[in-house]
Amino acid sequence: MLKPRSTPTRELVNLDGLWRFGIAGRVQDEPWTGRLDTTLEAAVPASYNDLFADREIRDHVGWVWYQRTARVPRGWADERVLLRLDSATHQGRVYVDDQLVAEHVGGYTPFEADITDVVRAGEEFRLTVGVNNELTNVTLPPGTLTVEQSGRRKQTYLHDFFNYAGLARSVWLYSRPATHVEDVTVVTGVDGAAGTVDYAVRTSAPADVRVRAVDVDGTEVAAGTGAEGSLRIEDVRLWQPGAAHLYDLVVELVDGGTVVDSWTESFGVRTVEVRGTQFLINGEPFYFTGFGKHEDTPIRGKGHDDAYLVHDFQLMEWIGANSFRTSHYPYAEEVLEFADRHGIVVIDETSAVGLNLAVTGGLAGAVTTPTFSPETFNDQTQAAHAQHLRELIARDKNHPSVVMWCITNEPSSNEEGAREYFEPLVQLTRELDPTRPVTYAVVMFANPSNDRIADLFDVISLNRYYGWYVANGDLVTAEDYLERDLRGWAAKYDKPILMTEYGADTMQGLHSLWDIPWTEEYQRDFLDMHHRVFDRVEAFVGEQIWNFADFQTTRAIHRVDGNKKGVFTRDRRPKAAAHALRQRWLGLNGVKPSGPA
């Protein structure tokens, strides 16, 4: 699905702002049939949970309703008119006046509706959007719904971040011609000093297609015709980590010599490859430094915010980070576009977090309820997972910043049924995009001896917490555990090993002379210990700390106003570890440090 943008043949209207808002039970039973009966207004884009001083709204389980009016521009009389939601967490229903025009399940990918036949150019219409935050065993992420004796509905879930919901990304009204470009796929390669650009254009109806590649100064560097083809860019400037260079692919549909639709897709020429234990970008070994992140800020929750986007990338540049993982869901498209322009490497992840019922057995991973079974995560869950992968890859396939797909975070990969569940999904991912490596983030109690699926993937990505959840406060023991674990994976698999999570909760301003958990000194020493081990393991290709910044979680006795493993606070103030990391990472510059093997 192409992201709406203004072109010579397309126009768009942004519908962000303040919308009327109400939760089910406080507004009329069919809120789309008239003006929403409420005095509340909610910001779009934003999660609704923290906007109001009302606990019932924050903890609401079920449908909420947004409503506003919009007007179709007068000049769109001969165009198709579409409505696009960048996301609705986790299920959306869209009504134009009294008519249902779209439904979608999945909280982090876009969906749209062609509303040409139910609106008129120059006239106003009532737009009502229902959003449901419920999670079950067949949704991603999964969860469990219960009803208490009082009738109160309660949502539980297995992921360790707050279940923010609502319209967290933008809503658009846009036009396109009747005959139009529906999709563009770009795959790049390198041939000596030249870049190769294989393209495929899908159109709504037969039309002549012509394409041209344009450099940043407007110079045409290659051109071709046909819905599929290959372009060659001589003396190409590659997209590289820390040194992004983008071209535009201008696609035009021509009918009788007239351009009936025009679409421009940015792309970068680069290659990605796993060779043995190396991760290569443009044929050169790449060492990941960076973070697992979250879309999480005060008040907005998961609402996209351009100011935080800019500031977060500035902090990553300051600290020397060259990458991040979109833990644990696809981020807003604006984030990936920014990464494209600024040379930040991205591991793109689905919202398949929590496929692990063994966590209820504690860190030992004792299986109390089978994770994969007809009653738990089953064929319906797998089908939903497959759809999430299709939507993720269709949306993000052309971003040069995206170098790897992560299809799940911390699944119960050591349990019976894991291979039957994941093998078809890995195969689907490779069919949808054969150009990028595939990984998954391995939970702590899956090890080289009991993991059932690691051989299916290109990169071993480990989430490990030695010194925190295991051997807490004892970094000597933690160092021994960590090194033995990493060397076990390296001995069994001839694959790159990446640490996708390691971290320690830290309260800003808490200090001690001793190795006391939760202090800033302990976080710094904890990270230093990990880095010593990383430097000794030859197959190691990177380190992504958990987490970039503190973030909100559900209420729990081990969470003091959320997860505090951030190197920055939730409002982006650096902890002591940030300064130590800056010294290490700026010196690495994307190259693996040398250390005794």
From TrEMBL:
Residues 14-177 form the Glycosyl hydrolases family 2 sugar binding domain. SUPFAM superfamilies: (Trans)glycosidases (SSF51445), beta-Galactosidase/glucuronidase domain (SSF49303), Galactose-binding domain-like (SSF49785). GO terms for biological process: carbohydrate metabolic process; glucuronoside catabolic process. Gene3D superfamilies: Galactose-binding domain-like (2.60.120.260), Glycosidases (3.20.20.80), Immunoglobulins (2.60.40.10). Residues 272-586 form the Glycoside hydrolase family 2 catalytic domain. GO terms for molecular function: beta-glucuronidase activity; carbohydrate binding. InterPro entries: Beta-gal/glucu_dom_sf (IPR036156), Galactose-bd-like_sf (IPR008979), GH (IPR017853), Glyco_hydro_2 (IPR006101), Glyco_hydro_2_cat (IPR006103), Glyco_hydro_2_CS (IPR023230), Glyco_hydro_2_N (IPR006104), Ig-like_fold (IPR013783). The keyword Hydrolase applies. Keywords: Glycosidase, Hydrolase. Its EC number is 3.2.1.31. It comes from the Bacteria. It is an enzyme of class 3 (hydrolase). Residues 179-270 form the Glycoside hydrolase family 2 immunoglobulin-like beta-sandwich domain. Belongs to the glycosyl hydrolase 2 family. NCBIfam families: PRK10150.1 (NF007538). This is Beta-glucuronidase. It comes from Modestobacter roseus.
